[in-house]
Structures are given as C-alpha cells and as structure tokens.
Description:
The chain has 553 residues and is α/β, with parallel strands linked by helices. The chain has 18 helices and 18 strands. It has helices at residues 4-10, 28-39, 83-88, 121-129, 133-156, 169-181, 187-198, 201-208, 212-223, 235-243, 262-275, 318-327, 333-340, 383-394, 441-458, 462-465, 474-481, 533-552, and strands at 19-24, 44-47, 59-60, 71-72, 98-100, 104-107, 113-116, 256-258, 279-281, 286-292, 295-301, 306-314, 348-355, 376-379, 403-407, 422-429, 466-472, 517-519. The model is unreliable at 1-14 (pLDDT under 50). The site of flavin-adenine dinucleotide has 39 residues, from helix 2, strand 13 and helix 17.
Amino acid sequence: xxxKATKAATGTNRGAADYDAIIVGGGHNGLxxxxxxxxxxxxxLVLEARNKTGGAATTEAPWPDAPDFKVTRLSYVMSxxxxxxxxxxQLARHGYKIFPMGPYYQAFPExxxxxxxxxxxxxxxxxxxxxxxKDADAMPRWDAWLAGLxxxxxxxxxxxxxxxxxxxxxxxxxxxxxxxxxxNLDVRTIADVTRLMTMxxxxxxxxxxxxxxxxxALAVNGVIGTWAxxxxxxxxxxxxxxxxxxxGDGHLGNWGFQEGGMGAVADAIASAARENGAEIRTGARxxxxxxxxxxxxxxxxxxxxxxxxxxxxxxLHPRTxxxxxVGRENLPDDFVQDIEHWKTRSGVVKINLALAELPDFTxxxxxxxxxxxxxxxxxxxxxxxxxxxxxxxxxxxxxxxPFSDGVIPTAFDKTLVPDGYHIMSLFTQWVPSxxxxxxxxxxxxxxxxxxxxxxNEVAPNFKSSILHxxxxxxxxxxxxxxxxxxxxxxxxxxxxxxFHMRPAPGFADYRTPVPGLYYxxxxxxxxxxxxxIPGMQAxxxxxxxRRKVARxx
Length: 553
Ligand SMILES: Cc1cc2nc3c(=O)[nH]c(=O)nc-3n(C[C@H](O)[C@H](O)[C@H](O)COP(=O)(O)OP(=O)(O)OC[C@H]3O[C@@H](n4cnc5c(N)ncnc54)[C@H](O)[C@@H]3O)c2cc1C
C-alpha cells in the first residue's frame, strides 16, 4: 500500500535531488550536523520551524518594553561540547567564548552558607569544615573517585554504541572492540561503575558524607532535568553525566557561560555551517519525511513544498521525527513500540529575571559583585528539600518550595543587559509532568512567586530587585520549542534510555530503520545537553555511508 509519504515522493518527478543533505531542525545538533556535512562537500540545507535557529540553545529578549535585556531563555551553561567539535568547526573564530563559572553557592534558610569550588581542594576543605570535619576530609577522596569514573565514562560519550545482541559480524566486531578497549578495568572499577549506574544519588552520598548541607550540594546534579527525586535509582548516573566535563578528547574544564548567552553558541555553529556552504532556512516547518523505495528521499514542508535529498538528518524529538514525520506504517513494529514507550517527562520550569541589583545574601552581605554571585546560586539546601518538591509534583501538585539551579551570567557577560543591571536564570523543578498538556499560566506564576520567596528568605533584597520576569513552563517548551513533555533532553536520562538503548535498541548508531535517514537529536547517545555530539556522529554516519556508496560505484 502506498503511504502518504511514498505517494508524495512519487509526485516529485525530479531527476536530480535538490540537495545532497537536508537537516530537519536548526537546534545546535542540527547545525553541527549541517556544518560537518557541508564541510564534507555535501550541498546541505537546514530547515528550522521557528524564526530563529538554536532550539533550546537560544538567547531572546522576552520583554517588549525592555528590549535591551536578553536572557538565555532555556539552557544556560556549557560543559560538554568536545574540543573536537570546537576545533573542527573553528568555533572560537565564529564567536564561541566561554567564561568559566565561579563556585557552587548555597545560602541556608536557617543561616550560613557553603561554597564549593571545582578546582580548589583547600578552600573546599575550609568551606565544608563549617558543616562537618568528616565530610571535609572525605571530599578529596570523593573528587578522586569521581575523576576515576569520569575517565571511564567520559570517552564513552564519544563512542558510537555497538548493537548489543546482534549476531552480525560487523556488530560483533564493534562489541568486541568496546570490550577490548576496557580490558584493563579491574573488579573495583567495574563495581564502582555498576554502583553509579544503579544507585540513587541519595544512597550514594549517604555512603560518603554525613552533613545534610554537603549532601544537598552534591545531589543537585543528580536530578537536573529528571523526572525523579534524589532517592530514585539511576540518579547517581545523572549526577555523573552532569559532572564529567571531559569527554576524553581534551580537558574541558568547568562549566561556563557563553558570551551572548546560549544562543551565541548556536550562532557560532550556524556561522561555521554557512561558511562551509550550508544553507539555513528559518520559518520552514517540516511536516513529513519523504520516502522513495523505502529510502529517505527528502521532506515536505507544512506549506506543501517538497525538497529532495538522498540524505536526511532529523534532529527532532523522536515522537515527532519518527511517529509524525516518517509514520508508523513505514517503520518496524518493534521500533514504533520503543518510540511510543519513550519516557519524556520532566516538570521543569525556567524562570528568567531582570534584576536592578545583585542578591544581597544575609550570610554573605553586599550587592556589589562577589565570588558567590559568579557560579551557581542554588536553592536546594538538603536532599529531603529536593525530594519533597518531587513528591508533591508526582502527587499532581506543583512544588510548594521548588528547588532551583540559579545562575547570574551577567556577573561576567556585559552583552546581555544595560550597564549596572543583571540577569538571573533559575532552572527550577518540579511541576506535575502533565503540565505539558495545558498552559497552567496562573499556577506557573504562583509557582514562580514561591520560588522567588525562597530566595528572598536568604537574600531579602531579592524580590524588590526584580524588574521583569519570564516564566517558561513545560507547555511552552513543548508547543513553542518542540520539547515533547517539556523534557529538556528530548527524553529522560533514565538507565533504560541510555547508550545502546538511546533512542531504541538496534538504532543507537545515529542511523534509523529508514536507509538514508539519520538521527541527530539529544535523544541519541551523548545527548542531552548542548554537546553537539549527536549532530557530529549523525553527520559522520551519513558521510561514511555516502563514501561507501561512492566507492561501490
Ligand atoms: C530549560 C532548559 C534548560 C537546559 N539547560 C541546559 C544547560 O544549562 N546546559 C546544557 O548543556 N543543556 C541544557 N539543556 C538541554 C539542551 O538545551 C538540549 O539538550 C539541547 O539544546 C537540544 O539540542 P538539539 O539540537 O538536540 O534539539 P533542539 O534544541 O530541541 O532543536 C530542535 C530544533 O528543531 C526545530 N523543530 C521542531 N519541529 C520542527 C519541524 N517540524 N520542522 C523544522 N524544525 C523543527 C525546533 O524549533 C528546534 O530549533 C536545557 C534544556 C532546557 C529546555
């Protein structure tokens, strides 16, 4: 039976394709894929539905009456973009410029504060000793333990997952190659990796530390973007994913702020793609992927225009890319079921604030710029605090006291605001996961009020310093940015959705069940985050397959 897509393709009547490669979605991964494909000599077109590229890496001016205030509206800090991509695409020349972040900072409602530094063991010892001498002594061992695990896990982010369980000689060879690469791992390291992959961040931290303040500080990374509280198995791995910071092809250092906000990262990649010859169209929404004789043949836009190419790379959420654009009828049943079962909840709310002055913390007074303003300015005082926020959301209620991973990029970046003002970005959790289905506008504003009140308890000038605010909930993330379910990574980083399972078993090598269609979204291995790895790997797969075909000819 001819499907909608195959019918459309037969109607094109074109001999030569319009392009060599079409990229669906101009988020940072789509742009990375475009840059690599164009660099390989492919005539490449990027199609982006919104009126600007970048996707979740976007800088915007959300307040019409204050157009000089720009916020990095969704994602807010960089860490995992590998040196390979930065160098291959010469991103520094295109505007990629990172200010390393200052320390982790938490001021406690009951008084006092803690700062944790990425690379200063001595100061960490002083800071942690305020809360527990035992924890201060344990911290260097924890750091070393984590660094050891990062050495194993980091390079895996750049590894194309083998097709585990396949008996094809090529797949068996890849599986053996991976095992051989890890032949020197000893029993303890394997045990530690197993613990990291299976434990909750709460249980793991309980094994190492005693003070609620230190455990709260270290738990945050375990629940960022996750529909799971710190007591859920698997959250230890989420902490590691956010803490690796080095993917094995050069040291990446600490997290940092891009000058001009995260949109400037996407702009740098877009500029590199254009320089290599890629064409980028915005306001171009793809409605369908064209198939011809079972292969990808191009796309149909929502205005009916057809564009053909032998290679199509999609970087959209898997439900959109496969179920909506390719169509269930054109995909194997197992694959369709895997994508239907894909978990994509999160309950994240982003709150962007324009501030007249910096927060004046009771524990560390002053509105002039100080070190504690330059890193993450948290509201996640203890693990029970974080867990309560999750339990409320799981029960169908927005958190009474949400947790927040806050940052003030304008501590460094003067391009975002007029002189003397600041932007504060609060990445907060949780609201109920089904809030992606309705706007919940008033409840979101009330939630934002409560979040602001929490900060006001520790920095009493906070509320009165707010000039403008922008609250982005799961509904807007899904409907305006294509993040289905509001999930920030196109799908949860839960164990059953990692490595060879991301986005589906048998298709973790950035290829798809449709020949000629490649997959570059954060829902593939190494995603999510603004790391570009899915885009690079999908392009590499497409380039390798094109060369194979050319050699055969
Ligand atoms: C609130 C929030 C905070 C985050 N914080 C961080 C952070 O601090 N650091 C970090 O590293 N990561 C962070 N992330 C995650 C990170 O931003 C994402 O994993 C990453 O940006 C996804 O990139 P992508 O290119 O895979 O997809 P996207 O950015 O989602 O790009 C997909 C693109 O496709 C477009 N599109 C959708 N439908 C169509 C269509 N039909 N036709 C054409 N185009 C279409 C979209 O408009 C979008 O531009 C955050 C995400 C969110 C939402």
